[in-house]
Amino acid sequence: MENIRNVVIIGSGCAGHTAALYTARANLKPLVLEGHEPGGQLALTTLVENFPGFPEGIQGPELIENMRKQAGRFGAQYQLGHVVSADLSKRPFAIDVGKESIHARTLIIASGASARWLGLPSEQALIGHGVSSCATCDGFFFSGKEIAVIGGGDSAMEEALFLTRFASKVTLIHRRDQFRASKIMVDRAQHNKKIHFLTDTVVEDVYDVIKREVTALKLRNTKTNEVREFPTSGMFLGIGHIPNAKMFEGQLGTDTDGYLVTTNYVFTRVDGVYACGDVQDRRYRQAITAAGTGCMAALEAEKFL
């Protein structure tokens, strides 16, 4: 069998680049498959102010590009490609990237999780310009402003509660009149004077793409079909994330939402296969924690080899 790689890393966000840096410095010549969202969620972020070492902050895409260059300097190789499937039942592992099959002695899965979006063109155009899926990343930029959170589960309640630290008013918009969130989370939100609720309501458009900032939402009441314009300075999506782990269904353990289950931080149930970053972390989902687990996965792969 030709072209067996010591380490193949799936994903090119913080976790993937950090794993690439560590394995490259160990002279393991890792191959990074960039995935269907090169750069991960940081590539969609504007200013990152909570990554250590950048007192003035740094643009998300620039941080990712710096990480990539750093790993590349030590010999990490990058290849555009989306993993279709993988066979972890035999060694070396076989990874199918469409037109070719790549074989690996160890595999580091850093494929991340994709935020659930409403799917509106205006929403997509304004990501990083008032539309966000990460309250802990972007909440600070909305100090003293009125903002909206979309969703009705625990994620939405958590985002809304966190955002009350900064915003003057948070309106939680949900398409039904019942919430999926746990009773304790709903109670907390309802007892917070800064949080207001708009139920039976969906977002149909986000203004203003031309101004490159969020100024208002076009809302529709699902019961009356009444449409109105709702002024706001920001829209946060609290409708969850989708872990990019479908290609490992039936081979690796997942929880009820599809996140890869790991023990001792990064170990999967297959020896030599490690998972790091947002594909296995549903709790923290930060650039710095993703980088930390990327480091752990790399050290374990090196030890395994």
Which key phrases capture this entry?
seven-stranded mixed sheet, 305 residues, 19 strands, alpha/beta
What is the helix/strand order? Answer: EHEEEHEEEEEHEHEHEHEEEEEEEH
Helical amount: 10-25%
* Cα Rg: 21 Å
Mean pLDDT equals 94
Tell me what the structure shows.
The chain is α/β, with parallel strands linked by helices and 305 residues long. The chain is built from 7 helices and 19 strands. Helix content is 23%, strand content 26%. The strands form 5 sheets. Strands 1, 2, 5, 6, 7, 8 and 19 form a 7-stranded mixed β-sheet that branches. A 5-stranded parallel β-sheet has the order 10-17-11-12-13, with helices on one face. A 3-stranded antiparallel β-sheet has the order 14-15-16. Strand 6 and strand 7 form a beta hairpin. Helix 1 packs parallel to helix 2, helix 1 packs parallel to helix 7 and helix 5 runs parallel beside helix 6. It is elongated, with a radius of gyration of 21 Å.
Secondary structure elements and pairings:
Layout: E1 4-10, H1 14-25, E2 31-33, E3 47-48, E4 58-59, H2 60-73, E5 77-79, E6 85-87, E7 93-96, E8 101-109, E9 113-115, H3 121-125, E10 131-132, H4 135-138, E11 146-150, H5 154-163, E12 169-173, H6 183-190, E13 195-198, E14 201-207, E15 216-221, E16 227-231, E17 235-237, E18 241-243, E19 273-275, H7 287-304
Parallel strand pairs: 1-2, 1-8, 2-5, 8-19, 10-17, 11-12, 11-17, 12-13
Antiparallel strand pairs: 3-4, 6-7, 7-8, 9-18, 14-15, 15-16
Helix pairs in contact: 1-2, 1-7, 5-6
